[in-house]
Design a protein that fits this description.
There is one protein chain. The chain is α+β, with helices and mostly antiparallel strands and 437 residues long. Helix content is 41%, strand content 14%. The chain has 17 helices and nine strands. Helix 13 packs across helix 14. It starts with 12 loop residues before the first helix and ends in a 6-residue tail after the last helix. About 7% of the residues have low confidence.
């Protein structure tokens, strides 16, 4: 792997917090070592998606010589920390479900194996922007894409009609629509800018062409405050400052009420939004529709991602080839993909599985839009590349703190973005990484 991805210190502060004692009996199988590839092997798979054991059972029935045992885990930073700790104790599982943005952190801690020779043939089954995220800009491949969260625009069809609004296709039109709604119904808002989940802001920046982490001369270069993200921050900051949209966080009782009562009539979200709306705004079933994300350049359609995960093989695995074989099957085989949709409720990263089969019908909440998944698949193909680094958690925490203050004060977002950049750079240096200026 590129030298720049390797950690310069013994362990991250979060990794040592867990301690290897908690990992007893969680490691990969030791039976037979490397020679076991030609005979029966047992693999362990750490995953958080529900019912993954049911999906693995399909594999186990067809592949008695390679048994996969799923061990349910927490998601997010907790799992990343546990994997790093396990890896340093040489007790990591064979396979892990890892979010795209977690890959650089795991690779920099030497926790993930390069499986390019084993899974390279799967590349064409995924959108280029998704596959690129598993390579970290190198010739290596550290995981196989599993699920994705392409960004889209969700809106209340009845209220758009009532107020004479057109679905915005560009961000300029989006701003005009927000202001037009305020002029006609001051008590309503097109949407809100939320600071409690950096994933949406990261996806919007990705769509605009942002590269938050890149490498230069074997050093990390942080571009959180680059031109593309500045454009996104200025756009949303201007709408908040002008009062054209709300400034309240998502996922609160107040936000749920705003969606359910029609005080907020649209939401920039991802393909998984129907599930959230079902709970947050149950009274609005059948009143929503989905459209492509507004564009900065309508001649070059693109979208960003909010969420998504992969299946990776750890450096501790004694059965790399067998583990990679399972990872490929899990995320490309038609039967496996259908099971992932049905049992785990995910939106598959593999393009062939994004329409038809288990996704032949629209989500029940969007039954009024029968081509929901057909449109979603077309949007997913335009997913822009993303660039993640080894301290995404620090950048996300800084976003929540700095943009939370800026949104509440309805102030300029430029200062918040600068602070986010500074915090990310400072943390990289503190961890021992070399940073390009």
């Amino acid at each position: 792997m590129p030298i720049v991805l390797r950690h310069r210190v013994v362990a991250t502060a979060t990794a040592v917090a867990l301690g290897a004692a908690a990992l007893t009996a969680c490691g990969s199988s030791e039976e037979g070592g490397e020679q076991a590839e030609s005979g029966p092997v047992s693999l362990t798979y750490w995953a958080w998606a529900p019912n993954m054991d049911k999906v693995a059972a399909i594999w186990n029935k067809k592949n008695p010589d390679i048994k996969v045992t799923v061990q349910k885990q927490a998601s997010g930073d907790d799992l990343v920390t546990k994997i790093i700790t396990a890896s340093k104790a040489h007790q990591a599982p064979d396979l892990v479900q890892a979010e795209f943005q977690a890959l650089p952190t795991l690779v920099s801690n030497d926790a993930l194996a390069d499986i390019s020779k084993e899974v390279g043939g799967a590349k064409d089954k995924f959108a280029p922007g998704l596959w690129q995220q598993t390579t970290l800009g190198s010739d290596a491949v550290y995981a196989v894409p599993q699920d994705s969260g392409p960004l889209m625009f969700f809106y209340r069809t009845d209220l758009f009609k009532q107020y004479g609004l057109k679905v915005p296709t560009t961000w300029d039109e989006f701003a005009a629509t927000a202001k037009a709604l305020k002029a006609k119904a001051p008590d309503k808002a097109l949407t809100t800018f939320s600071s409690n989940d950096a994933g949406l802001f990261a996806g919007l920046s990705q769509q605009a062409g942002a590269q938050w982490w890149t490498t230069q001369d074997q050093k990390w270069k942080v571009g959180v405050d680059g031109t593309a993200t500045q454009k996104v921050a200025d756009f949303w900051g201007g709408l908040v400052k002008d009062g054209a949209i709300d400034n309240q966080p998502m996922y609160t009782p107040a936000w749920n009420k705003a969606l359910n009562t029609g005080q907020q009539i649209a939401w920039v979200s991802a393909v998984w939004a129907p599930g959230v709306l079902t709970t947050a705004a149950p009274d609005t079933k059948g009143k929503w529709a989905m459209a492509p994300l507004p564009q900065w350049d309508a001649t070059k359609p693109s979208t960003g991602s909010w969420g998504g995960s992969t299946t990776a093989v750890t450096t501790d695995s004694k059965h790399k080839a067998a583990a990679a074989k399972f990872a490929t099957w899990l995320n490309t085989d038609p039967e496996a993909l259908a099971a992932l949709v049905k049992e785990a409720g995910i939106y598959p990263a593999a393009t062939a599985a994004q329409t038809g089969g288990a996704l032949a019908q629209a989500p029940e909440f969007f039954a009024n839009q029968p081509d929901f998944y057909t449109q979603a698949a077309a949007i997913a193909k335009t997913t822009a590349p993303a660039a993640w680094g080894p301290n995404v958690n620090v950048a996300y925490t800084s976003f929540k703190d700095e943009f939370g203050k800026a949104a509440k004060a309805k102030s300029d977002f430029a200062g918040a973005l600068s602070a986010m950049q500074a915090a990310t750079v400072a943390d990289l240096k503190k961890q021992g990484f070399e940073v390009a200026q």
